[in-house]
Amino acid sequence: MRKLLLIFAIALFGLNYAQKAPAILKKGFSKEALSQKLEDEEGKTITIQQILDQHKGKVLVIDFWAGWCRDCLQALPKAEELEKNNPNVDFVFLSLERSKEGFEKSLVRFNMKDKDNYWFASGWKNDFNNYIDLNWIPRYMVIDQKSAIAKYYAISPEDPEIQKTIDSLLQ
Question: Are strands 139-143 and 149-154 parallel, antiparallel or unpaired?
Answer without folding.
Answer: antiparallel
